[in-house]
Amino acid sequence: MLFMSIVCLFVTPFLELANLTDWWNPHFIFNTYPLYLEDLLFGFSLGGVASALYSLLIDRFHIPSLIRPFSRIKKVIIILIMLFLFYIPFHFLHMSSFWSEMLSCGIAILLISFHLSFRSLLSMLLTGMLLIIMITPGYFLGMYLNPGWIEEEWLLKGFAAFPVFGIPIAEFIFYMLVGLTIPSLQELLFNKNNLAYKEK
Length: 200
Prior knowledge:
The protein has helices spanning 2-22, 37-59, 72-91, 97-113, 118-145, 149-153, 169-190, 192-196; strands at 163-164, 167-168. By secondary structure, it is an all-alpha fold. The chain is globular and about 50 Å long.
């Protein structure tokens, strides 16, 4: 859990710099551009919560989450693919941050999923669903306290902006993606059986 919190602590601010261009434009309490304190806290806590939920779910099955470990070279390749599929589409092909993140994380999840057990994949889906359930009341509270909050701060367009109970569908997709991506990276980087594996 702590390891994924630290990973997200460093990754989130860089993703947020992209998101600020076309996803949303929030009002920050601490003006510490380009590394906003709020983003650091959000990334650290979200990574920890997603990792903890997944660990609790997978532990209930009492079976190995990996059906075959990752070689070191495959670990490196998957991480590089994630970076490439986000950086190139967003910076050079002018794809939105939403679709760049979907592409990058989606392909990585697919590649990692071939190494995971069915119950591990099920736990990942449940993690995403639980994150959505946990975070949704916060949006309703924000809209109640500040009507027009979504319209004022969100920059999404097209499909990503489609409202579901007044909340852009991209937000629900994002938390489902987090629920899939964090456990996938946890298995890729920190699974004990995987760490003990040595490529022959």
